[in-house]
């Protein structure tokens, strides 16, 4: 067993938000999660009541594994996966996952062992989300934009035993393995995914080929189920937009509940067809890698998120649902391949609030856009802008503004609030008073891998602290204004970079924009805008500044405009920490 992921350590180090207290005193627990305390004595007394019993007939630890098993029965002959010429049914997917779990066990994977992936949205990624936990392991889906140095760091930190790598990223993986060897760290075994059979001469020694493993597995393998639904099912490293990534641990219970919640948020009925434009490595594909099995959906896999591929697959496979960060929406509406859809496609977008102009253009193309919000620490989606029918009759501008709000909590969360981070009091529901968004419930992470201090800080006060600043509207809908580290304080006034970006986005020449603080000896800080223009457009920085002054209070308008491409993570987030460094290097404006 992996020395970190033994049961006692998981309970002690990771799950500080658990209500059980077997490994903590009540006083220790109360410091971390006072509102969530459960009276174990009362619970035990109910278990001793005559006539009540917990047994196999009425209790099974919740796990997404059950979604696949049900789909293999209920949707046996329905298409589960499509990828180019590759097509599987749910019955076939179940058999492949059982055999793959068997093969992983033969390679030494047992309870608590980590299996990492470095791959795009190909069928193997979907299968590994089930096969790894079915072998008792924990899946760790790594960002495909990591370089070899970062990859080596994360493989070492997570104590990965097997790395399943797509042939596209094999060179990066091999370099990472060599880095580990030079540090006298035992590297993981490599399993290579390839669209075509690999010649033996191209397979490095002591590595395995994915499809061969699947075919060599045992179909009668006895699936390993979690002993406790709080057992880890996955580790997701944060995107590293601000600092060194942290390993966020998900439980079987949380993954089960968030999968169902995300399906409901997306308005999915039985047997939807989902286009994988969201990276499966990002929050386990917003938990839809598991959730689609719950409803017998079809996974349409694409190796690259390209507007033409998106359109072609929507038409060919009659796609009903998809997802993507605002940058994906921006890419679609500005693509030369854009065209009205033959049928409506529901698309969920998360991340920074999408500009109203982008929402309007997406609707014109035939997309139904829903806005959600969450973090890696909340299994991805945590809230959504639940749409009210009476809003349909509002003027377009007002309707689109409402759609950019982050909304209300989903059915799997116990609480979402906007609080003063010092007093922990809820802010006024006036749409003006800012506070920090905080979460509480079963779909909040178990904790940060091997980082007790960060875990306790994140849960201090009995809520998960997001670090995002927002307001609460009178109708109970939240609206994100900024990251706490991104807010600009100029002359004593708080300036939301999101609001400045929204105005700049509305300029017809602007394709992308990110706003950060620039030092200013007089004002303290002033807005600095990094702008990427659309092809064929040419404007000056002063024109952007003048445009902003016409559409917002002058003190909020940027005083500096820099034209360049924006650095992004593979999930579409702008790496503002890099832009802040650039703005700081410019020196004071005054």
TrEMBL record:
Keywords: Ligase, Phenylpropanoid metabolism
Pfam families: AMP-binding (PF00501), AMP-binding_C (PF13193)
Keyword hit for Aminoacyl-tRNA synthetase: no
Residues in AMP-dependent synthetase/ligase domain copies: 68-449
Pathways involved: Phytoalexin biosynthesis; 3,4',5-trihydroxystilbene biosynthesis; 3,4',5-trihydroxystilbene from trans-4-coumarate: step 1/2
Molecular function GO terms recorded: (E)-caffeate-CoA ligase activity
Residue ranges of every copy of the AMP-binding enzyme C-terminal domain listed in the record: 499-573
InterPro entries: AMP-bd_C, AMP-bd_C_sf, AMP-binding_CS, AMP-dep_synth/lig_dom, ANL_N_sf
Keyword Ligase: yes
GO BP term, example: phenylpropanoid metabolic process
Family in the record: Belongs to the ATP-dependent AMP-binding enzyme family.
Annotated NCBIfam families: PRK08162.1
The protein's name: AMP-dependent synthetase and ligase family protein
């Amino acid at each position: 067993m992996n020395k970190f992921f033994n049961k006692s350590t998981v309970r002690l180090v990771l799950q500080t938000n658990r209500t059980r207290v077997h490994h903590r005193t009540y006083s220790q627990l109360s410091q971390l999660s006072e509102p969530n305390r459960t009276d174990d004595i009362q619970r035990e007394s109910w278990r001793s009541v005559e006539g009540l019993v917990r047994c196999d007939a009425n209790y099974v630890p919740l796990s997404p594994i059950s979604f696949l098993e049900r789909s293999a029965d209920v949707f046996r002959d329905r298409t589960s996966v499509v990828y180019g010429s590759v097509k599987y049914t749910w019955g076939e997917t179940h058999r492949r996952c059982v055999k793959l779990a068997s093969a992983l066990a033969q390679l030494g994977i047992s309870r608590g062992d980590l299996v990492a992936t470095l791959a795009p949205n190909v069928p193997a990624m979907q299968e590994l989300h089930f096969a790894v936990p079915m072998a008792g392991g924990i899946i760790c889906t790594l960002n495909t934009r990591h370089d070899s140095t970062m990859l080596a760091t994360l493989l070492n930190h997570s104590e990965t035993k097997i790395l399943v790598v797509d042939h596209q990223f094999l060179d990066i993986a091999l370099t990472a393995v060599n880095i580990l060897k030079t540090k006298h760290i035992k590297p993981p075994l490599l399993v290579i995914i390839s669209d075509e059979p690999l010649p033996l001469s191209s397979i490095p020694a002591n590595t395995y080929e994915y499809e061969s493993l699947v075919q060599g597995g045992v179909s009668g393998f006895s699936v390993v189920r979690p002993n406790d639904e709080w057992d880890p099912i996955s580790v997701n490293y944060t995107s590293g937009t601000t600092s060194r990534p942290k390993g966020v641990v998900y439980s079987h219970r949380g993954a089960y509940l968030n999968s169902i919640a995300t399906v409901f948020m997306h308005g999915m009925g039985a047997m939807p067809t989902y286009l994988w434009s969201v990276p499966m490595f990002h929050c386990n594909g917003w938990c839809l890698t598991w959730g689609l099995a719950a409803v017998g959906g079809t996974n349409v896999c694409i190796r690259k998120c390209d507007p033409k591929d998106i359109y072609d697959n929507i038409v060919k496979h009659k796609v009903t649902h998809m997802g993507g960060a605002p940058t994906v929406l921006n890419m679609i509406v500005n693509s030369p391949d854009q065209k009205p859809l033959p049928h409506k496609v529901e698309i969920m977008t998360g991340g920074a609030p999408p500009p109203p102009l982008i929402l309007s253009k997406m609707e014109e193309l035939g997309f139904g856009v829903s806005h959600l919000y969450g973090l890696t620490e909340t299994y991805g989606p945590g809230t959504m802008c639940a749409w009210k029918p009476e809003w349909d009759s509002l003027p377009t501008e007002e309707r689109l503004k409402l759609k950019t709000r982050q909304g209300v909590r989903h059915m799997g969360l116990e609480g979402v609030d906007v609080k003063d981070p010092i007093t922990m009091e809820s802010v006024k529901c006036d749409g003006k008073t800012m506070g920090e968004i905080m979460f509480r419930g079963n779909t909040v992470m178990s904790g940060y891998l091997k980082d007790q201090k960060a875990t306790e800080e994140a849960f201090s006060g009995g809520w998960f602290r997001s670090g995002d600043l927002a307001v609460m509207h009178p109708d109970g809908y939240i609206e994100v204004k900024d990251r706490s580290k991104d807010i600009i304080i100029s002359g004593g006034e708080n300036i939301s970079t999101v609001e400045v970006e929204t105005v700049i986005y509305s300029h017809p020449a602007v394709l992308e924009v990110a706003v950060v603080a620039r030092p200013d000896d007089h004002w303290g800080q002033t807005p600095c805008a990094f702008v990427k223009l659309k092809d064929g457009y040419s404007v000056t920085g002063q024109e952007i500044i003048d445009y902003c002054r016409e559409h917002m209070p002058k003190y909020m308008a940027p005083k500096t405009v820099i034209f360049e491409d924006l650095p992004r993570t593979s999930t579409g987030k702008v790496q503002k920490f890099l832009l802040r460094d650039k703005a700081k290097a410019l020196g004071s404006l005054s």
